[in-house]
Amino acid sequence: MSETAAATPATTDDVADAPQLRAVGVTIDCADPERIADFWQAAIGFNTRVGNGHPYITLSEAGGGRMLNHLTNPARARG
To answer: What is the number of alpha carbons within 13 Å of residue 76 lying toward its C-beta?
Structure first.
């Protein structure tokens, strides 16, 4: 007969030692960056806005940190 070892539950030390991943920016390819940026600015409350939609608009938290980019890619529009 073979014996199987029971799984050992993770401890807080295991989690603290695990590699950390931190997302700081997301880019959305869209046909109308201004309209999509308006939506996301209201939805997530980022209050810093840079760009005019040609070719991008960036939304970010006050003081930096996380960012959301809205980019129009004319090459994709030509299909």
So the answer is: 9
5 inside domain: no
Cis amide bond preceding 55, omega within 30: yes
Give pTM, 2 decimals. 0.60
Count H helices, E strands: the chain?
3, 4
Number of domains in the chain: 1
- Give the whole-angstrom CA distance, residue 73 versus residue 55: 7
pLDDT tens digit sequence for 17-66: 778 777 678 898 998 999 999 999 999 999 899 998 888 899 998 877 78
Q: Is residue 7 part of a domain?
A: no
